[in-house]
Structures are given as C-alpha cells and as structure tokens.
Design goal:
The protein contains eight helices and five strands. By secondary structure, the protein is an alpha/beta fold. It has one domain: Rossmann fold (3-Layer(aba) Sandwich), CATH 3.40.50.300.
Length: 174
C-alpha cells in the first residue's frame, strides 16, 4: 500500500490526523520532524538556529529516505513544499494529502512560540499561508478541509484516500 503523506500549514492537524488515520488503517505513523530530530540528534529549533537552509537540506535528505518506504502515514513539516524535489521524492510511493485548515483556526489553536517560523506572531502565519497555499494545492493528490470535528475530518480523509486509491493506478496528480 502507498504511504499517506500529510502536507499543510503548521497547526493544520497533520500530526493529529496522521496518528488517527494510522491507527484506523493499522499503519505505522511517522512524524517527519520527530524522525529528523531523532536521527540528527538536534531539535528543529537547533537546526533553524544554524540556518533555515541547513534545516531544509536535512529535511530534503529525509524526504528521500521516507519516500522509499511503503504503507506508512507520514506527517511532514509545513515547509516541505518549499523544495519541489521533496515532494517528488515523497510522492514516489505516496498519496499526498493537503490538510487545509482555516488560518483563523490555526491562530486560535497553536502555541506560535514553539514553531520557529511562527514565533513572530499572527502576521507570520498569514505570510506563510500566502507564500505556501499555491504550493500545497499544486503538490497534493487530495485536498481535505480540516473544518469539522476530529472524527468527521478523519472519516473524510479515509473516504477520499480510498476513493483515490480505487480511481488511480499511478501516482500522477490530476
């Protein structure tokens, strides 16, 4: 079975829904940021403190590694779409799901001080959203709106993934 890879803004629910979907489909779950930290023995913040380029280079390395796996649910970091090759590597064995959550919900829900690119506040969230929204839409196979209850959205994701699987024999985006 293909991986299910979640992309989207920080705070869109990629990890939350990744864990739920993995459990419901009896698949292993990987939080890409945690995977990177574990293997690099540095926190994301420490890598960003070196430079964003340093972190993005490390992230690209792990996109190659994780893109070679099968039958996993993977929650990526919000900036994975900044490099086209990351998506190309991940989508080899994956369905890319853009978890689109209203920005207002993200702002009201997350602790921005713990997110390196959001520490500058609300304006940073809108700026990132405007910079990335077209990339998320361009690189996904499926777009799911995270605008309901957890169970409702989880079931919507599974239904869309199952429909996509039954309609597609290749990995090409429509």
């Amino acid at each position: 079975m293909k991986n299910i890879v979640f992309i989207g803004m920080p705070g869109s629910g990629k990890t939350t829904f990744g864990k739920i979907i993995a459990k419901k489909l009896n698949m292993p779950f990987i939080d890409m940021d945690e995977y990177i930290e574990l293997n690099e023995k540095k926190t994301i913040k420490e890598m960003f403190d070196i430079s964003e380029k340093y972190f993005r280079d490390v992230e690209s390395k792990y996109a190659i590694i994780l893109g070679q796996l099968n039958s996993r649910v993977i929650a990526t970091g919000g900036g994975i779409v900044k490099r086209k090759e990351n998506i190309e590597n991940l989508e080899k064995n994956s369905i890319i799901v853009f978890l689109n959550r209203p920005v207002e919900n993200i702002i009201s829900d997350i602790n921005m001080s713990t997110r390196p690119l959001l520490k500058d506040g609300i304006e940073a969230v809108y700026k990132l959203y405007n910079e990335r929204i077209n990339l998320y839409k361009k690189y996904c196979h499926l777009e799911v709106y995270n605008d309901g209850g957890i169970e409702e959205v989880a079931n919507k994701i599974i239904k869309k993934v199952e429909e996509w699987n039954s309609e597609n024999t290749s990995n090409k985006r429509p």
